[in-house]
Amino acid sequence: MGTNVLPPALAIRFLHLYCKEELVEELEGSFYEYFNERKDRRGLFWARWFFWLDVVLHCRPYVWKTRKRQNSNHMLGNHLKVSIRSLRKNPLNTSLNIIGLATGLASFILINLWIDNELSWDQFHDKKERIYRIPNTFRSEAETFSQAVSGPALGAQLHHIFSEVNSATRLGRETLQIKMGDEVYFQSDIGLVDPTFLDIFSFPNLVEDQETPLDELGSIVITKSLATKYFGDENPIGKELALVEGNSLKVTGVVDDVPETSQIQFQALVSMETIRRIWGSNNYDDNWGGGWFHTYLLLEEGVDVAQLEKDITAFIREKLSSWAEQGMYYDYFLQPLTSIHLKSDLRYDFLSNGSLQQVLVFRWSAIVILLLACINYINISTANTVYRSKQVGLRKVLGAGKGSIMGQMLVETFTIVLLSTALAYLLAYLMLPLVSAITSYDQLNLFEPGGLIRIGGVVLALSLLSGAVPAFTIAKYNALKVIRGTLRTGTELGLLRKGLVVAQFIATGVLLISMIVIQNQMNFIQKQSLGMKTNEVMHISFQGSQEVQQRASVIRDRLLSLPEVRDLSFLHNSYPVDGLSNSGAEIETADGTFIRSSIYTLRVDNHFKETFGLELASGRFFSDEFPADSTRSVLVNEATVANFGWGSPEQGIGKKFGQAPNQRTVVGVVRDFNFEGLHKPIEPVRILPTTADRYTTLAVRFKGDNTLQVINSLQSAWDEVVPSIPLDLSMMSDDIKRQYSTEYNFRTIFVAFSIISIIIGCLGLFGLVTATVNQRLKEISVRKVLGASVLSILVMINTYFVQLIAIATIVAVPISYYMMQNWLNDFSYHVSFSWWYVFLAITGIMAITVLTISSNAIKTVRRNPAEVLQDE
Amino acid sequence: MKGTNLGEFEEYILLTILAQPEEAYSVGIAKEIEKVTGRKVVHSVVHASLTRLVKKGMLQDAMGEATSQRGGKRKRMYSLSRAGIVALEKARDQRNALWDRISLSQIKSAYGD
Fold first, then answer.
1. A–B interface: beta-carbon pairs under 8 A
2. pLDDT digits (tens, 9 = 90+) for A27-39
3. Inter-axis angle of helices A356-383 and A91-119, to 10 degrees?
């Protein structure tokens, strides 16, 4: 009968797993008996099912296997003692291990510290789950782009129109001129907000003299440090700040300084309405289009965000129907507040924004570096097992089980890892100021509880991971052979160790190649001509001070009289570094029709071209000889010519912007210059003349290398003309460098990674070579006796490792090629990945390897063979 | 005390073993009890009780022969020890002592039969 039909094998396996030996045969038999019966009675399916049920039902404590437990706890003290002895016996390996692990751990600690900070942005707001920013995507016939800022009407009205929106606030940034006695201060970082701002966001420790401190016109909320700056130790609440315009602002609240991890940074808050009254500007609260302010919405609980986006987009399209007729649309979308820092990269977005990709890259780098250190430990310990084989053999003879030997090894590993952790924290502590400087986080806390707990877990995992391999290897030894001295732990590396060395060098290779590519790209950026004389320009910001505007021509004459000054130009919010504003315009196309498009705009005086060193492709620049320029003329760049299909720069002359009576004619085309950094391709830009009453900043082109002297001369000349206005000056080349701060930081960190990984790799190689050479001591001596030269033996040892490294580079090249191609593609202008980099990296690694190996092995190789062989 | 008193189920098991010594293994006992009492008897419960009784010293066990019905696995055969027989006798005596105090006619009249 049915002996060919068997009960479920898996169930039997399970039974054997839990059931003790005395009972298993009998139980299995019984189940089988039931199984056969049920099979005949109810069919195979149910029989199998019940078989399972039986197995599971019998899984009770009295059936379970009992572990034969040795009490090994009393050995712990002994393990520790022996560990410390063997660590001291082998100071070279111990220090290699500890330094390697500590370096890896320190990098891991620091990188994770940074990652934690990146992830903690904007988390301190109580209502963060309900706060969204509302940016938009603008579409026209000519272009499409997404911008972080929206029209002023959104923040002013959306909460009245949509019941899903609880409240809204806009956020702009301004600089106020504050008068203290005779001094004028440019107080930058003034947050221009709506009174609801302080209800929506939770900035810490708000002290206020009334429920809604920004409600009343003419009130200002300031930070603690600003309070100290203007009022010292006095209670600032109720005090007044005088403005140059003649009004004054009353302090109605004080908040703690804004946390570093906040996208919204400010020194003080003033309501939009207050500023509007002071400056007498128009009321724009009905203006739905354009990109003006960051707008934040506080939504009601459980709102369908996708639906709300659609509703808002539809509503505003209705309002802007005249735009739609001209083929221009806005699509609005909502970004959760806490996602903005890492995920948002829009036009006019916060410069402080990070990148999720970078966080991921660094997270993996941290893990890789830790693994490298781990591999090192495994390599060095297993290579040196010969040293301890006697000890292990004796222990085994005296009755130690595998478990006990492994316990001993794990205790030893754990000791090393603990020592390394202590050293790692010391290293991290010493490196912290450097990390702060690179990452611009000032308040990094190394000993945060969450971080400590995680490091604790990592330490434990590290001990187990790197302790397990040597522990297994050693515990496997045959005691008899060890004692007799006939054990040969292969003179060649085991397959495992080979693999680990290769893995280590793959990582090193990838990092090194990447480092070279990044270095080249950064050099390229620095050398790349932006189409402007960036090294000769200084930028002076006077925030549109009326005093300066009124004396603009005096300032011009006075500064031009300085021998250091070549030319200067007044601008209206048009410094071609920070990114320019853009606005809509009607632009003539090749066939004479007009299309509406948004275009970047520069508003400058007649000396702009000379000051920034731009070149003309055709036509002329604005000139005092053509008074009509101020209302009739416009210049564009080459990108505009290409974008609107005008053909050549010469054919661009005479094209029209806008309709009569405000129509302007293109009088010249300037060669492309890069006003947005090399990340982005050059976009169309128009250059418009501006008038003295709109000047906000000043650019000065200087001669000579002594910038300090130039600054001094400028300072004294400036103080002669407008003594009450501070000279707020920066070098254009520095401002441009700041655009690439992310890349510069990336480079610094990558260089650090590469160096660390190379150090760790070399440490590992060093330890490995020592062990290998020592194991092959006799062989080497015999070779020497037989006539081999020192050199040939060195070549023999080197060849072996060089082969491994060759394999590693073959793998490393495509990986780094892929990674770096991705990175380079972020730039519109970049170097290409060249094989020359690979060659350089490989040569570097090989040189370091051969040097490490040879310097280490030479002493051993040069030993007198007689010495080595005498006790044979 | 606890060790010497038998539970109802344990008593059944001991009796069954005595009643059919040639089928005195877990499956055989379980089937027999099922047949006699008409209750569903789960093997794991029988087996646990058997193991407990062995531990208490009321049963002795020994491995029996293997059959094809059991997939070539041997069964564990049980037999009563001295202590087991004593415990059974004690249980019967206790019960009889109570029965002896009752007359059947009393019960019938009490329940109106």
1. 52
2. 888 898 899 888 8
3. 170
Using CB atoms, pick whichever of B25, B43, B48 lies closest to residue A62. B48
Domains and CATH numbers, chain B: 8-110 (1.10.10.10)
Question: Shortest Cα distance from A13 to chain B (angstroms)?
Answer: 15
Cα A441 to Cα A2: distance, rounded to the nearest angstrom: 75
The model's pLDDT over A541-575, given as tens digits with 9 standing for 90+, comes to 888 888 899 999 999 999 999 999 999 999 998 88
Q: Which of A224, A194, A195 is nearest to A212 (CA)?
A: A195
User: Would you call B63 an interface residue with chain A, using a CB distance cutoff of 8 Å?
Assistant: yes
- Tokens coding B108: 């019938």
Taking a contact as any Cβ pair under 8 Å apart, which residues of chain B between 11 and 30 contact chain A? 25-27
**Residue A53 touches partner B, C-beta closer than 8 Å:** no
Q: Which letter, b or e, does each residue of A644-682 get, where b requires 16 or more Cβ atoms within 10 Å of its Cβ? A: bebeebeebbebbbeeeeeebebbbbbebbbbbbbbeeb
pTM over 0.80: no
CA distance A171 to A197: 9
Q: Which tokens belong to A776? A: 């092959």
For position A769, what pLDDT does the model report? 81
Neighbours of B20 (CB within 10 A): 13
By C-alpha distance, which of A503, A516, A511, A486 is closest to A376? A503
Spatial contact of A669 and A641, defined as CB atoms under 8 Å apart: yes
Cβ within 8 Å, pair B73-A28: yes
Pairing of strands A165-180, A240-243: antiparallel
Does the distance separating the beta carbons of A32 and B47 come in below 8 Å? no
How far is the CA of B106 from the CAs of A287, B95, B100, B112, in angstroms?
Answer: 105, 18, 12, 10
Is the pLDDT assigned to residue A741 strictly greater than 80? no
Q: Which residues of B touch A58 (CB under 8 A)?
A: 43-44, 47
Within 13 Å and on the Cβ side, how many CA atoms surround A659?
4
| A872 alpha carbon, distance to own chain's centre | 60
